[in-house]
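Interim report to the steering committee. The following record documents the input for Glycoside hydrolase family 9 protein (430 residues).
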Amino acid sequence: MKRYMGIGPAVCVGLAALLLGGCTGTDTQGASQGLSRGTVLSMESTPVIDYTLPHLTPNILVDSIGYEAGREKEAAVKGKELPETFWLYDAETGEVVYRGTIEEESCDQELGLYMGYADFSEYTGEGTYYLECQGIGRSYSFSIQKNLYGQLYEELSQEILARCTENTAQVWEVMELLTACEWYPQLLTDADENQIPDTLEEIGLWIQTVEEAEAFEENDALYAALLAKFSYVYQKYDRTFATQCLQKASQVFEKAQSTLQKDTEIFFALTELFRATGLSTYGKQIRDYRTYFENNTSYLEEEEYLYGSMTYLSTRQKVDRELCSIFMEKLMDRGEEISVRCEEIIHPLEARNNGAGQLLNQAGQLSCANYVLNNYQYTSVIEKFLHYLMGENLESVCFYSPKEAQSGYLLLFAQLAATADITEGQTIDE
């Protein structure tokens, strides 16, 4: 696989059972040296041996969640020495289905390890597999599937909707689901064939339940933003209910604004209300933020500012063109910065980041830039971020769990699912 702009891969490791036969290098040495043993005599003078088992990680790092059948697929291989060849095994039959060569070998002087990549993009068969190298051991099992990201998007969406049914959903996770519905309508389904997407119907029912129970404080600016966005998206299906939501959004915002000055949620609500109503009072208040945005680049790290600016860029109302230029320029600059620094940020052995939360935030910023540009390179980098978060890191930790309804992954899954037909089979030229 060809690399580009210094961008390194992110190949991740998961949660299934692992046989570590043949692991070499620091992992094996750590296993033997880390074994502590204490001998205690019982009353019958029978020795009792207490062992503290070392923490072992595989030397072949894969995405434990899986790989899209038609996309690039590679794993990181580490060890004191690296073999030339790797094998891809069918986990059910134990048969070798693909053989390849370890590429792009490099040395980590600090860890005393070599690392290379096992690229098996050519293999597209669906199923469950694992990788193995002589003297290195085998990887965790992983799947190869068609429409993998579409399935992950649907799975996470259903988790959030289940929380809506149980009245345990948070406003922000519903907001992210609603944003995914707006940006990627091609992923919406209509099982009952009533011409209204099922997810939007479910969100509408949640709003009705919330209103009846008065579950949110009257001054919740984020809730006002959600109501305004829902009104905008839903008006083509039920104008009456959409209007009711917009009226409620205005009421909630007025109370929120009476207790707060400028803040992230207020800004987000202003952009949604301005787009939905076109009222100049909202537009003027948005323009009052211009000085802050001109002199600040860190605002993109605040999700309310980030998605609020995306809403402002997409409105058909009369907008401040200079403010739009500021938003666009800084979003493009941030997207390019993250793309260029990808290898440094998510290198399997030498990653420099502040944890999963920061990585998810950076991937979200890049996905917003990619929504505007539809850049194949950015799509590839977003997928690499996911691979890293799902296991390709020094400790082989998978940070993703759909049961925790981690809504920050939702737009990433949606974007990759929506671009699957475009990117399938493409390669990156130097």
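The first strand starts at residue 36 and ends at 41. The committee is asked to note this result when reviewing the revised timeline.
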